[in-house]
Amino acid sequence: MKRVLSIKQKTAYQTMGSIKSAYHRGFSRGLALGLVLLAAFIVLTGSLLYGEESDDALYIDPNGNVGIGTNQLHPDVKLTVEGKIHVQDLKATRTVQANEFSGSGSELTVEDGENIKKALNKKLDKAGGHITGKLSISGNVGIGTSDQEVTLEVAQNQVIKIGNAYLSSGGDYAHLANNEWFDGKKWHGKKSGTLIQLDQQKIRFHRHDGKGNHTPSMIINSKGYVSIGGAEPIVPMHISRATTAAFGFPGTSSNKWGLFVEAHACAKYWHRHSDARVKRSPLPVKTANALNTIQNLKVYDYGFIPEYDDSPNRKERGFLAQQVKEVIPEAVSVIGDKELSNGKVLKNFHVLNESRIVAETVAAVQELHKVIMAQQEEIARLREEVAGTRAQMAQFEDLLQKDGLIVTANGKR
């Protein structure tokens, strides 16, 4: 059975050599007697009380440090307790340290955040280290830092997790990703997801495979230029094919199209890449049949069904892809199935490359020009022949007049 109190008193008895030490453990037998003896010993020794046995319930060393349930005192604290403490109210004017604050409705309130900040600045990811319940701090808090400028500051290359989202930063970059994080040296992933990277004045959007491999999807640079597809933007809106990332036709699995707009599009200028250095084996077109090709195209006036277009009364003039396909097959593409607003699906939806028709029209105009030039040459030749014939007729009339064979209008020969 543990003693209630163990006291060893060094008194004048020791100098007399009669007794080396005296033990008084009177609380277990008689409380009153123990109190009287304790008071006497405190007076005699100048309040130096200390116990020495490991199973003492109360241990007090000569320095005034107290242990309850243990004689293994911490040299830097005044009270060491082996076990739990139950108090109704606890007020601390300086630092409070604990591995864990827990319990239903537990609350820790610190008026001056400087003291609790020192404890919270230590890494909270140690085994068993956590805080439950409410925590109120009026000052700034740092994790892995010594000087905080904001309410919560975390050292670089450390990670904050919220659900499956991870926030990490180091240097001039910051990462926000799901299912992966960066520790300053390498990536740690669980499964595929997306990543947003703040890189100085750039914003980068990536897809990742959870194994440290990233595929760029979009970039916004310091000028505000936007690139979709992974290339560095060189114009305000840059859509590249640097990756397989591209806009597919809505309702289809196609990814061959760089951009699809299901609305009105307007631009001051439209330009198409046409550098000869990127074109393979260019050959001049024989325009002989171009005129017949254009003549076989049919131009229509039409509107759109309301399930496809929100302006059904709008009138257009143009071509029908299926009809053009009969004349110029390479001008038409089939991009997949198209779902209308009423749920109806149009199989094998057709789209038209009108620039192909423009090229065919130019060839037809060139062929028409050749025909016109040939006709003009023929007309010029005929005009020369007519002029020559008229000259010959004039000479013949002159000869007839001289011979008196021509009667003039006044009847003279």
Task: Produce a short descriptive summary.
This protein is an alpha+beta fold and 413 residues long. The protein has six helices and 25 strands.
Query: How many separate domains make up the residues?
Result: 4
The CATH topology of the largest domain is Arc Repressor Mutant, subunit A
The CATH class name of the largest domain reads Mainly Alpha
N- to C-terminal distance? 173 Å
* Unreliable runs: 1-31, 40-52, 123-128, 242-255
Number of helices: 6
Largest sheet: 8 strands, mixed
> What number is the mean pLDDT?
74
Describe this structure in words.
The chain is of the alpha+beta class. It folds into four domains: 1-86, no CATH class; 101-151, no CATH class; 156-245, no CATH class; 283-413, Arc Repressor Mutant, subunit A (Orthogonal Bundle). 22% of the residues lie in helices and 25% in strands. The protein contains six helices and 25 strands. The strands form nine sheets. An eight-stranded mixed β-sheet has the order 12-13-14-17-18-19-20-21, with no helix packed on it. Helix 4 packs across helix 6 (354-402). 9% of the residues are buried. The model is unreliable at 1-31, 40-52, 123-128 and 242-255 (pLDDT under 50).
Which labels suit this protein?
single chain; 413 residues; 4 domains; 8-stranded mixed sheet; 6 helices
Write the layout of secondary structure elements.
Elements: E1 8-9, H1 12-16, E2 22-23, H2 31-45, E3 58-60, E4 66-68, E5 79-81, E6 100-101, E7 107-110, H3 113-120, E8 130-131, E9 134-137, E10 141-143, E11 152-154, E12 159-162, E13 165-170, E14 173-178, E15 180-182, E16 187-189, E17 193-199, E18 202-208, E19 214-220, E20 226-228, E21 237-239, H4 290-296, E22 300-302, E23 316-318, H5 321-327, E24 332-339, E25 345-352, H6 354-402
Parallel strand pairs: 4-5, 6-8, 7-9, 10-11, 20-21
Antiparallel strand pairs: 1-2, 3-4, 12-13, 13-14, 14-17, 15-16, 17-18, 18-19, 19-20, 22-23, 24-25
